[in-house]
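hey so u asked for the seq, here:
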Amino acid sequence: MKGLIQALWILIICSSGSLAGETEQEAVDLLRKTETLMRSSGTVAEYQVDIIRPDWQRTMSFRSHDDIDNNRFRMEILSPRKTKGTVYLKVNNILSMYLPKLRRQINISPAMMQDPWMGSDFLNQDLLETDSLVDQYSHRIVAREGVGEQAIVTIESTPSATAAVTWKRLIQRIRANGIPLEMEYQCEKMANRRMTFDQIRIMDGRLIPTRWTMAPQDQPGKRTVITLKSIQFNVPLADDIFNPAKRK
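ran it, structure tokens below
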């Protein structure tokens, strides 16, 4: 669920005249810094997911293998037992799901892209759109707070005319050192969402946020919390890892 995790990973003073191009490039550079901080040539991680509703709560866990160089991602559900072994696989722009009980791999159709992922506040579409953030959106810095590495930069991102993406505007708050703090998803046809990043600590030698909370803005009491339990960067990933039927 790259898109989930990346979504979980990538997260804007508006200038005019001759400075416009400079601030746009600065915004792109900062987004690239965030991506470099949170990802590597091969990344293996385990997460806990808590789906929280006003009257119930459900917990699950998964392991991910992220191959950024070859634009592919594998996520295997580890718990609960009912969905254990279910694999989400993204290769380029194709998203599929492997169901171990049926021993069957199915592609997730365009009609299913707006469905909640595993009943959470993330969408199946999020799994595909994170790779398009920098290249298919235009970016501009619209605010700054503070100075130095702890300064907070706010970036507004809008999609290009031909971009096949869901969100019409993204508002991101990122530290100057690349650590993401908040990302707001805005869309005319769908409820806005906000994702916050906290519990910043060192894992495998990198200072990164280890908890991400996604919440719809029109439904108080609903949220999905993803907690990073372990992570390894720059791990060699064999091709057979991306065989959805193969357990890791």
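The chain has four helices and 13 strands. The first helix runs from residue 2 to 7.
lmk if thats what u needed
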